[in-house]
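During the second year of the project, the team shifted from modelling isolated chains to modelling whole assemblies. The rationale, set out in the original proposal, was that interfaces cannot be judged from single-chain predictions alone. As a representative example for this report, we include one of the complexes processed in the last quarter. Its constituent sequences, exactly as entered into the pipeline, are reproduced here:
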Amino acid sequence: MNNVLYNKLVDLYAGRELPAELEEQMELAAEQDAALKREMSSMRNVVDTLHQMDSPEYTEESYQRILMKLYARGAEIQTQSPEPSHFQYHLPLQG
Amino acid sequence: MPNDAMRDTLAEKRWLTALAKGDPQALGGLYEMYGERIFRYTLRMLGNRTDAEDATAETFLRVLRRSAELRADGAFRTWLFRIARNLCIDKMRQHKLMELPSDAHYSGSEERATLRVTVHQALADLPIEYREPLVLCDLEDMAAREAAEILKISVPALKSRLYRGRRALRDKLGGTLERTS
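Output from the structure prediction step:
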C-alpha cells in the first residue's frame, strides 16, 4: 500500500475518525499484517492516553491568586463566589 | 445547539454587553465562565503554576482593555484562547520554559502519576508546532475547527500537525504506553 495513504489511514484509525465499517476492515487487515497491527495499536494508545489524562487541578488558591493579580493591576472585578474566610476577617498582628 | 452551550452563549453575550457598559461584575462573570479552562490551558503550555496564573490574569486584563471592541458573536472564546496562547509563547520565549509541569497538582494513583509525568515530559520535549495541537485537541478536547482558528492555521494544516505530533509523541514515549496499558 502507498506509504502516505497507509499512514493517513492509521492516523484516522488512531483518532477514531474512520467510519465503523472501514475501521473493522482495517482491524481485519491488521490480523494478517503484524507491522500494521503494531502501528495501529501504538498510535491509538497514544491518542487514548492523551484523552484520558487528568486535568491539572484548578485550586481555590489559584482562583484567588489570579483575582488578586487582576486587582493588583487595577482591574475592577466582582465575582459571584463568596470570598474565602481568610479574606473576610483581619488576623490579629503579632507584636 | 445543546442546552448547556446555548446557556453559555447567552451568558457570554450578557457579560460582554455588560462589560462594554463598564459593569464591574462582567469581568468577574467572564472569569468564572472561562478562568478554569484558560488556566488549565496555560498550565499545560507553560508547565508552571505561577506563570499560568500570571498568564491567566493577563488574559482577562486584555479582555478588560479591549472591552469596547469585543463582540458576542461566538468568536469570543476563540479570541480568549488566542490571547492566552500569545501570552504563553511570550513567556516561553522570555524564560525558555519548556520543561515538564513540575509543580502541577494532579490527583490519582502513583502509577497514573508516573505516566502523567512521563507523558508531560515527552510533550514538553516536542516542538511547539506539534505540542499546541495536542494540547488543544487531545488534552483540552477542542474541535479541530476551533483549534485551527486559535492557531490561525487551516483545518488540514492543524490535522497534519496533530497527526505528526502524535507520531512524534509515540516515538518519544517508546514502550512506556505498552508497559502501562
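The mean pLDDT of chain A is 85. The helical segments of chain A are 3-14, 20-31, 34-52, 60-72, 85-88.
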